[in-house]
Amino acid sequence: MLGKMLENVRASCPLIHNITNYVTVNDCANILLACGASPIMADDCAEAAEITSLCGGLNLNIGTLNSRTIESMLLAGKRANELGHPVVLDPVGVGASTLRTQTALELLAQLRLAVIRGNISEIKALASGSGTTKGVDADAADKVTEQTLSGVATFAKSFAEKTGAVIAITGAIDVVSDGKTAYCIRNGHPMMSSVTGTGCQLSAMTSAFVTATPDHPLEAAAAAVSAMGLAGEIAHQRLGKLDGNASYRNYIIDAIYRMTPDILEKGASYEVR
Amino acid sequence: MLGKMLENVRASCPLIHNITNYVTVNDCANILLACGASPIMADDCAEAAEITSLCGGLNLNIGTLNSRTIESMLLAGKRANELGHPVVLDPVGVGASTLRTQTALELLAQLRLAVIRGNISEIKALASGSGTTKGVDADAADKVTEQTLSGVATFAKSFAEKTGAVIAITGAIDVVSDGKTAYCIRNGHPMMSSVTGTGCQLSAMTSAFVTATPDHPLEAAAAAVSAMGLAGEIAHQRLGKLDGNASYRNYIIDAIYRMTPDILEKGASYEVR
Amino acid sequence: MLGKMLENVRASCPLIHNITNYVTVNDCANILLACGASPIMADDCAEAAEITSLCGGLNLNIGTLNSRTIESMLLAGKRANELGHPVVLDPVGVGASTLRTQTALELLAQLRLAVIRGNISEIKALASGSGTTKGVDADAADKVTEQTLSGVATFAKSFAEKTGAVIAITGAIDVVSDGKTAYCIRNGHPMMSSVTGTGCQLSAMTSAFVTATPDHPLEAAAAAVSAMGLAGEIAHQRLGKLDGNASYRNYIIDAIYRMTPDILEKGASYEVR
User: Fold this and answer.
1) Looking at the predicted structure, is the pLDDT value of residue B19 above 80?
2) Chain A nearest CA to C33, separation (Å)
3) Residue C82: which residues within 8 A CB-CB, separation 6 or more?
4) Gap from C265 CA to chain A (nearest CA, Å)
5) 3-state secondary structure of B80
6) Greatest distance between any 2 Cα atoms in chain C
7) What are the tens digits of pLDDT across the range C103-158?
8) So what's the pLDDT on residue C137?
9) Residue from A10, A48, C237, A23 nearest B98 by CA
């Protein structure tokens, strides 16, 4: 099932409009190409809606937001909604500043989102309308573990139901829910947190997956999450004794490039609750 | 002949001012260093012209343009023209939005350009003043093939004559013309399109080549185009079975770093029409 | 002693707020993660001070400054000063434009800086209030050699005394002084200048080191400088015959990721004057 989602991306080559932070934008572009999609970045108000019209899906990431790009996100998001294009929101660092919290809440209020992807602290901050995230990483107190998993799945379902979006909470264990069902995904490797932007890359890739299979956003998002984690596992096996996080970054993207539907299908590790 | 162009870059170490998109800017900087040039990026109106004055050449790329950087491109371009510095334009995604089309046309109208480099859809959109590009990639219908090559060469010559700029159309077969002569270059590898920014990198490198040999912009641009394609071939041979587009990105820049005038001279595959 | 500085970073995982250029920002984030710190980038005036409050240290880099980010640097810097957080300034290209010179001088006048890190031309331009830097690289005439080292050390001491900041001048030989003592560091490799942003990365890493050991900013800065140079040496030994500056870039960050306090302690090459 998840393998089919990747197959659909490679078959349809969706064009994804990204309004994303400048820290990890190059990796987002390359991972989109790696999975079979095509990226375009455009963040000026004067062209945001028009570029969205050309594309199949939209990826909004508030990692280095500013007044100009916030307006572009709203313009592009509204146009995408009009056209029925899936919109993915990555609320990077929501809760870390009033600007981020207000912006994320405004995007949530004004747009119909297909998927919201973040770490547990970010999703909690978004759900509660406030929060104290430790910058862009999840708080230790929030970490998803076997003990807390059940509660996190319930929370994800409830927030998905409330927003109408698929909620993808990623961390040591990932939880993806559409309000009814929750995928609990155990792919990934702890070293992924030492590479900047694996979350941003995943959000970009999720946009491609839901654009390629718009009628199954839950399975599409779960497939993207599983594929990213699996790529982290494959890339980790490849590390030599001199390799560190920079080589790991490259190997993760390489693993997505080399991933086949069959590899994903066999390597995906998840349960459905 | 083309090898000599690379030799001139390495001998003169031209300093290149880049006003370019934030997606691929790091790769542009590293490929400039790889070919023997030195990059500086500065996009604020308050310093654009002054920074250009320090440099030998200017590279303008509209990939993530905004109102602030558009003004800076005009200011820097005019100063470069006053000083007789070569200006290269990469009209990324022209035709994909009104803003991009108008900006590219304004840069074309107001500046004397040494080289315009883009894919066939972009150059056609620029020549016609409108267009429907598929984001930042060439339309399938436009692809340069053996069948269409002759027509593309004629088009390139005619647009070069009209603009006074060397026109570099890159794709499966590259065509570089100054209005009289056309280089048809067969270096490169299809996998280059799975790496973001190979076009941007080539435009940056072209700026270095024409700055190092300003009296022969046609040969300089053809050498840069051929060098980039050859690097794509060399890098592709180096790929291991686990390598994907991220490693390929690094290997392409590495191949430029390791390229000698002799390697370029022997590896260049082109005919002059 | 220098090894202990790295140990402190890994033990305390300082969160560093970076307002830095978009050319090398991804490498800055990855090298912060590699050394054990955590990066956050935020450059909008509406959140700059608030984000700084969450963090332990602040890294200001004027590489692609603009009117919006200059204001954010001042806001974040003042807040960091109020909170007693170390602030590192990287005056990229100061002297190359009036905007850069004025901005760097304003930051110097308005903020209490823990460390100022630049090449010799940049630090001279900052000390004299004017200058003619060759873009972002040191002028050949300024290069630090065995012959000029003594004078450079005296200059660094004097500028450190005047500003109250540790001055880190990096080049073929690095000089780091707090006004009383000067570390003359001989780690590094000439090929590092063919990778864009090794200076920016070092400034980011220096922020992490001084944040982790705020009571010993001289030793912390010297340790960061030595670690970066040592990483350049280790990475250079790893280069294969096809590797160029792109692979070298990755290997340098990898070497920081793999560096232990013991490796740094044994590999550091310096004298204290």
Assistant:
1) yes
2) 5
3) none
4) 19
5) helix
6) 51
7) 999 999 999 999 999 999 999 999 998 765 556 677 777 888 999 999 999 999 99
8) 74
9) A48
Nearest-Cα distance to chain B for C273, in Å, is 34
Amino acid at A155: F
C238 vs B259: CA distance, rounded Å: 20
Pairing of strands A87-90, C182-185: unpaired
* Chain B residue with Cα closest to C67: B44
For residue A86, the one-letter residue type is P
- Measured between alpha carbons, how far is residue A181 from residues A2, A221, B54 in Å? 15, 13, 61
Q: Residue A38 carries which side chain, given as an amino acid letter?
A: S
Q: Would an 8 Å CB–CB cutoff place A147 in contact with chain C?
A: no
The tokens describing A242, both together, are 């001199």
Residue A156 tokens read as 């994800």
Query: Which residues make Cβ contacts (< 8 Å) with residue A84, sequence separation at least 6?
Result: A214
In whole angstroms, how far apart are CA C131 and each of A204, B48, B158, B205, C109? 44, 18, 46, 28, 18
Specify the DSSP class assigned to residue C129.
T
CATH number corresponding to C2-272: 3.40.1190.20
Contact A239, A247 (CB under 8 A): yes
- Using CB atoms, pick whichever of A30, A39, A249 lies closest to residue B245: A30
- For residue B39, give the 3-state DSSP assignment: strand
pLDDT at res. C131:
61
- Chain-centre distance of CA A63, in angstroms? 13
Question: Pick from C39, C47, C254: which is nearest to A242 by CB?
Answer: C254
Confidence (pLDDT) at B262: 98
Residue pLDDT, tens place only, B69-98? 999 999 999 999 999 999 999 999 999 999
Residue C90 has pLDDT above 70, yes or no: yes
Among chain A residues, CA nearest to B138: A38
Q: What are phi and psi of B44, to 5 degrees?
A: -90, 140
Nearest by CB: C97 against B15, B47, B258? B47
- Decide if pLDDT at B125 tops 90: yes
How many residues appear in chain A?
Answer: 273
Conformational region of residue A60, where left means phi above 0, alpha means psi within -120 to 50, and beta covers everything else: beta
* Mean pLDDT of successive 10-residue stretches along chain A, which has 273 residues: 97 98 98 98 97 98 96 98 98 96 97 98 92 67 88 97 98 97 98 98 98 98 98 98 98 98 98 95
Q: So what's the ipTM on this one?
A: 0.96
